[in-house]
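Complex record, two chains
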Amino acid sequence: MSGQQTIAAGTGVGLRLKRGEQLRVIDPEGGQSGDLLAFSLDGSERFSNGRTFDYDGKIYVSTGDVLWSNLSNPMLTIICDEVGRHDMLYAACTLEMYRIQYGVTGYHANCHDNLCTALRSVGVEPHPLPTPFNFFMNVEVAAGGRLVFAPPPSRAGDSIVLRAEMDLAIALSACPASTCNGGKTPGPLAYEMMGG
Amino acid sequence: MSGQQTIAAGTGVGLRLKRGEQLRVIDPEGGQSGDLLAFSLDGSERFSNGRTFDYDGKIYVSTGDVLWSNLSNPMLTIICDEVGRHDMLYAACTLEMYRIQYGVTGYHANCHDNLCTALRSVGVEPHPLPTPFNFFMNVEVAAGGRLVFAPPPSRAGDSIVLRAEMDLAIALSACPASTCNGGKTPGPLAYEMMGG
């Protein structure tokens, strides 16, 4: 695969990335966040925000920082970051979340289902889904630990580039929650894979 | 079971708590943190820090706050908290962590193994282990999201009381990492179960 692929608003995609290959994730219109999850190809190892907090020593990561697995291995290194703000606190949005927080009664697209479907499409059973790397999502920790959403700081065309440190199954979801996207109608994302 | 039970330094324990029952966790000597995990009895539902951040709207919880499951159900409510500082960011310490961060070459007691063994003792297969509720563990989010350890603020005899909101399998571990315990030799914890 080469060239830029679009992820339609509110949908997800699964892909495989070999060690050394790079993944660029782009916000084509600006102000849009998304979720990324990484698993080893056999599903036995998975992204861990808790291990990443531990080894990186911080809750916000950017260029040069590593996303770690639950088995304490580097999965991805951020090698270029034009946005500089990402979240690793929030679990992926789920249907239950839309019901509890927004009063949604029918179905609503959600990152949990998008990521699960995407991972299964590349051969990984993800349940129970770990907390994703929520790129471009802008969450501030205010006084007393209170969490405050701000609009994603990504401008149209901004991107983040991650290098695979092992062979990976990756899922991406263009987040369908307007709360995470500055109140606007959720938009698309795009990505491209680049050789190592 | 009634009366106070000791959890020896660096070890864990599994127990079952019926809906409405209360669990008091005590720091008998002061300055000691521990890890708690809760699962539904059949293992299908588990504590989720990410959902708890979302519904409670903060990273620090205390009296009146709820610990939520990955399926968006209340698992435990904090009904009394004499300490007022707990962490939900850090994954349980693992053998790999002691190797990477402390250069340990042999075995080292760790909360991950303690919690897994404890949960299996009450019939739950926990793998992959979610991030625990790290009670009395004192982690500050400093400028730029940097994470800073401070000693647990618990004084000798201080406790936290949690009420079960569903039938639960619970694991407790007296954390064997001196970093999480103000640099001192890790000590014991204690607990008691109280009728609803």
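Note: Chain A touches chain B at residues 46, 48-51, 53-55, 57-60, 70-72, 89-92, 94, 96-97, 99-101, 128-131, 141, 144-147 (CB under 8 Å).
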